[in-house]
């Protein structure tokens, strides 16, 4: 079973404006709201591919009820831990550029934490846990370690900055930083001359597979026996939100369904690209149409 973990889910409230002026009253011409959180994005991608993932995390209040009912409407399973405080609302302003205002998240009591840990401790070595997104401000910064210490589950992890290094000794099946995140992790300027060196370091430190997103330049894949580069696929960027999450979901789906790492990487590229070319998380038909165009070759030494 594939489980996705979103400790700090949200309602993402999207407002489209013709223009935005700081310090003035601004009026939107269109509003939308969706259940948000990186793990939820992965679940939507997996569901579109035909998988049946289960969402884990904390939800509470009227906002939590909205998240739960929205996932039910999409046919996505959940086993959230209910808390007394309200789940957060994030505001996304879209005009000539994009501005996001993300809330810190709810207060979670010790009793609620223990209930969650008891629940997640039932996962086993046949399961895969996809960990991503922020930790609510009331929880310890090392809360992901508490989760991993609960069981011996295969997992991926998507966290920002040097914090990722703390989890490599747990041997994640995949990490997927972009260039900017790789620079934050190692405190070095990354370019073509040293990209492969630092990507390999993530592999050497314990990550079983590494995907480095390079935006318009495509991505690279590193594992113990493979170094590959996927060329970028042309198309009009519509929505960058969820593209990285879609890559993670596509790779895990591929491995779970018997694909080689190379073929799982190609599927990951197709999923990420298809989402970037869609208004929301990509549909299966577009993913497999894009997959026909994915070109993967050896890279570096």
UniProtKB/TrEMBL annotation:
<dbReference type="GO" id="GO:0009024">
    <property type="term" value="F:tagatose-6-phosphate kinase activity"/>
</dbReference>
<comment type="similarity">
    <text>Belongs to the carbohydrate kinase PfkB family. LacC subfamily.</text>
</comment>
<keyword id="KW-0547">Nucleotide-binding</keyword>
<protein>
    <recommendedName>
        <fullName>Tagatose-6-phosphate kinase</fullName>
        <ecNumber>2.7.1.144</ecNumber>
    </recommendedName>
</protein>
<dbReference type="GO" id="GO:0016052">
    <property type="term" value="P:carbohydrate catabolic process"/>
</dbReference>
<keyword id="KW-0423">Lactose metabolism</keyword>
<dbReference type="GO" id="GO:0008662">
    <property type="term" value="F:1-phosphofructokinase activity"/>
</dbReference>
<dbReference type="InterPro" id="IPR002173">
    <property type="entry name" value="Carboh/pur_kinase_PfkB_CS"/>
</dbReference>
<dbReference type="GO" id="GO:0005988">
    <property type="term" value="P:lactose metabolic process"/>
</dbReference>
<keyword id="KW-0067">ATP-binding</keyword>
<dbReference type="Pfam" id="PF00294">
    <property type="entry name" value="PfkB"/>
</dbReference>
<comment type="function">
    <text>Catalyzes the ATP-dependent phosphorylation of fructose-l-phosphate to fructose-l,6-bisphosphate.</text>
</comment>
<feature type="domain" description="Carbohydrate kinase PfkB">
    <location>
        <begin position="6"/>
        <end position="278"/>
    </location>
</feature>
<dbReference type="GO" id="GO:0005829">
    <property type="term" value="C:cytosol"/>
</dbReference>
<comment type="similarity">
    <text>Belongs to the carbohydrate kinase pfkB family.</text>
</comment>
<comment type="pathway">
    <text>Carbohydrate metabolism; D-tagatose 6-phosphate degradation; D-glyceraldehyde 3-phosphate and glycerone phosphate from D-tagatose 6-phosphate: step 1/2.</text>
</comment>
<dbReference type="GO" id="GO:2001059">
    <property type="term" value="P:D-tagatose 6-phosphate catabolic process"/>
</dbReference>
<dbReference type="InterPro" id="IPR017583">
    <property type="entry name" value="Tagatose/fructose_Pkinase"/>
</dbReference>
<dbReference type="GO" id="GO:0005524">
    <property type="term" value="F:ATP binding"/>
</dbReference>
<dbReference type="GO" id="GO:0044281">
    <property type="term" value="P:small molecule metabolic process"/>
</dbReference>
<dbReference type="InterPro" id="IPR022463">
    <property type="entry name" value="1-PFruKinase"/>
</dbReference>
<dbReference type="InterPro" id="IPR029056">
    <property type="entry name" value="Ribokinase-like"/>
</dbReference>
<keyword id="KW-0808">Transferase</keyword>
<keyword id="KW-0418">Kinase</keyword>
<dbReference type="InterPro" id="IPR011611">
    <property type="entry name" value="PfkB_dom"/>
</dbReference>
């Amino acid at each position: 079973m594939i489980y996705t973990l979103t400790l700090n889910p949200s309602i993402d409230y999207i407002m489209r404006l013709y223009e935005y002026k700081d310090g003035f009253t601004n009026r939107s011409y269109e509003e939308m709201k969706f259940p948000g959180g990186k793990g939820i994005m992965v679940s939507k991608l997996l569901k579109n591919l035909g998988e049946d993932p289960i969402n884990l995390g904390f939800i509470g209040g009227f906002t939590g009820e909205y998240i739960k009912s929205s996932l039910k409407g999409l046919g996505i399973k959940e086993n959230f831990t209910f808390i007394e405080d309200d789940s957060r609302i994030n505001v996304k302003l879209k005009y000539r550029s994009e501005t996001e205002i993300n809330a810190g998240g709810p207060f979670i009591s010790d009793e609620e934490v223990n209930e969650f840990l008891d629940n997640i401790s039932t996962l086993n070595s046949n399961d895969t846990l996809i960990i991503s997104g922020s930790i609510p401000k009331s929880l310890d910064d090392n809360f992901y370690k508490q989760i991993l210490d609960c069981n011996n589950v295969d997992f991926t992890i998507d966290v920002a900055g040097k914090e990722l290094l703390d989890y490599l000794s747990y041997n994640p099946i995949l990490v997927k930083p972009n260039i900017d995140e790789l620079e934050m992790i190692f405190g070095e300027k990354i370019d073509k001359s040293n990209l492969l060196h630092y990507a390999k370091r993530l592999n050497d430190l314990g990550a079983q597979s590494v995907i480095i997103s390079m935006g318009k330049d495509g991505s690279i894949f590193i594992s113990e026996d493979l170094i590959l580069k996927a060329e970028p696929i042309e198309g009009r960027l519509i929505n960058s939100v969820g593209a990285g999450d879609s890559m993670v979901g596509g790779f895990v789906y591929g491995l779970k369904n018997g694909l080689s790492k190379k073929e799982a990487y190609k599927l990951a590229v197709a999923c990420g690209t298809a989402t970037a070319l869609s208004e929301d998380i990509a549909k299966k038909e577009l993913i497999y149409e894009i997959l026909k165009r994915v070109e993967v070759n050896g890279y570096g030494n």
